[in-house]
Amino acid sequence: MLDSVREIETPEGISLRLRAVGPLPRAQAWMIDTVIRLVLLMLGMAPLSLLGTGGRGVAMLLMFALLWAYWVICELWLDGQSLGKRALGLRVVNLDGTPVTWLPSVTRNLLRVVDALPGVYGVGLASTLVDPCARRLGDIVAGTMVVYAKELPIGHQVPAAPAQPLPVPLAPEEQAALVDFAERADRLTPQRQEELANLLEPLTGCRDTAAVRRLLGYANSLLGRP
Amino acid sequence: MAMHAQEWDHLQLWLGELDRQPKRGMRREQALDFPAAYRRVCHHLALARGRGYSHEVTERLQLLVQRGHRVLYRPPPPRWHRAASFLVADFPRLVRAQWRCMALAAALFYVPALLLLAWLQIHPELAHTLFSSARLAEFERMYDPANPHLGRSSGTNLQMFGFYVFNNVSIAFRTFASGLLFGVGAIYVLGANGILIGGVAGHLTAIGYGGPFWRFVVTHSAFELSALVIAGGAGLQLGLTLLAPGRRRRGPALVEAGWIGAKLALGAFAMLVVAACIEAYWSSQAALPDALRFGTAALAWLLVLGWLGFGGRAGQHGA
């Protein structure tokens, strides 16, 4: 398992996987949100400026809503996703994996002020880099975290190869290790792939390129591919 | 597996429909059956894990369970009468529960303000070291006895209302949030505002513009200054919890303090909206007779202090 995954046991006695989001996608989502808010502000300002000085007061109220209320309204109505987060497939959840509720949402967005402090989100960046769940200070105090909304099915990066049945039944952890190896194989040099595959000679019964191919075959059969 | 595949397909279809059209999906008969179906799938997943079934099966069930979990444990829809009961009873109770921090915040704000107010009566020239002459001129123009509107040099009621909401609520929210920096931010904002307000009041009183100034601020300050003190107190309790969580672990203690602080900040927000209404539409009317103005002001102060001091007390016995 990658260390950015947080496993949570539910009342039903099974575990959920929450994949924490690092600072870069969150910064991108924030940029999208900022552009959207600026566009909304300009769209609102145009008719309001025709109303004269009273319009300026309404424009202030609009600015207030975009600065403070935008995040909370989005997160509550769109199931934990501001528009930028929705575009990037991120979601705010409570630490127990349930959808974010209003009090944590208000807390994390009020404390945005502290995260944004020196320059542009300096404290938030430091906090997301240090925290194992990549939470900013507001998330830590509110008891929330930002996760990927879409679940990646395990093994979707395993290269397709003709499946080969395992010669002996393996324990779940051993099966997972095989699938993980197949998933990351094409990011390793061929020499390293062969070196790792040679360790399993008792299982595969062959060496070097043949062993790598056989392990890929096992992984494909574990994933239920033909 | 073949036995249950159909049930899983049904559930998956329904969850997909729920993502696209939440209202229609919930009206379907399947919605009634959902909790039981979800628990069955959880059972299947545990069984599949335990018996070491293939990745194909466990992954499919895992995805189904993750989506189901989000639907089953989604937050209940907001109930609006809760907002009313929060304002009437829960918020004053919360303020009283945090009375130590509130008292500290009030002291941090009022002590420098009152000291400066008194000091400026004895040494009026000190005002020029506190403020630049351009700002002093601005204050003097706002509270010039010849000005038809009290407390502003230009602008209509609506414009000033928007400005007051934006400005004051932003200050209150920042005061609360900056309390997370070990309380330093909240202490700074409270002290700085105390000095600013005390300085302005002292200077204007010393130069003889006190009449318009006190007439302007006396009513809405009941809500405005109390809200600032409450926001500052909320920030202080957050910072103090970070420094000294007591007999709890720091993480859970912080989460609890954060939620309390957010509730207090929301209450302060409501108070500041009321203050902005009064400030823009009532305080600025120069034509009001003094008896009416000071009578309303006394009523406002009594209302705020009574609400914060006694709001929600009767409910403790009733419930």
Summarize the structure.
The complex is a heterodimer of chains A (about 230) and B (about 325). With about 230 residues, chain A is mostly helical.
Set down the secondary structure blueprint.
The complex is a heterodimer of chains A (226) and B (319).
Chain A: E1 5-9, E2 15-19, H1 23-49, H2 53-77, H3 83-88, E3 90-94, H4 102-110, H5 112-115, H6 122-130, H7 137-142, E4 144-148, H8 172-184, H9 190-198, H10 201-204, H11 208-222
Antiparallel strand pairs in A: 1-2, 3-4
Chain B: H1 2-20, H2 22-27, H3 30-50, H4 55-72, H5 80-97, H6 99-122, H7 127-130, H8 133-142, H9 157-178, H10 184-206, H11 210-243, H12 250-283, H13 290-310, H14 313-318
Helix pairs in contact in B: 1-3, 1-4, 3-4, 5-12, 5-13, 6-10, 6-11, 9-10, 9-11, 9-12, 10-11, 11-12, 11-13
What does this structure look like?
The complex is a heterodimer of chains A (226) and B (319). With 226 residues, chain A is mostly helical. Chain A folds into two domains: 5-148, no CATH class; 172-222, no CATH class. Chain A is built from eleven helices and four strands; from the N terminus they run E-E-H-H-H-E-H-H-H-H-E-H-H-H-H. By secondary structure, chain B is an all-alpha fold. Chain B is built from 14 helices and no strands. The longest helix of chain B is centred in the last third of the chain and has 34 residues, at 210-243. Chain B is elongated and about 90 Å long. The model of chain B has no long low-confidence stretch (mean pLDDT 84). Chains A and B meet through helix 2, helix 4, helix 5, helix 7 and helix 8 of A and helix 3, helix 4, helix 9 and helix 12 of B.
When the domains of chain B are counted, the total is 2
Write down the domain tally of chain A: 2
Total E-strand runs of chain A:
4
Question: What's the tally of helices of chain A?
Answer: 11
Strand count of chain B: 0
Biggest beta sheet attributes of chain B? none
Q: Which pair of chains has the greatest number of interface residues, and how are they split between the two chains?
A: A-B, 51 and 55 residues
Shape of chain A: elongated
Element pattern of chain A in H and E: EEHHHEHHHHEHHHH
Which shape of chain B, going by the Cα principal axes? elongated
Average of per-residue pLDDT values of chain B: 84
Beta-strand residue fraction of chain B: under 5%
Strand order of the largest sheet of chain A: 1-2
Mean pLDDT score of chain A:
85
Tell me the major beta sheet of chain A.
Answer: 2 strands, antiparallel
Give the distance, in angstroms, between the N- and C-terminal Cα atoms of chain B: 52 Å
Terminal CA distance of chain A:
25 Å
Note the total helix count of chain B: 14
Helix-and-strand structural type of chain B: mainly alpha
Low-confidence stretches of chain B: none
- List the helices and strands of chain B in order: HHHHHHHHHHHHHH
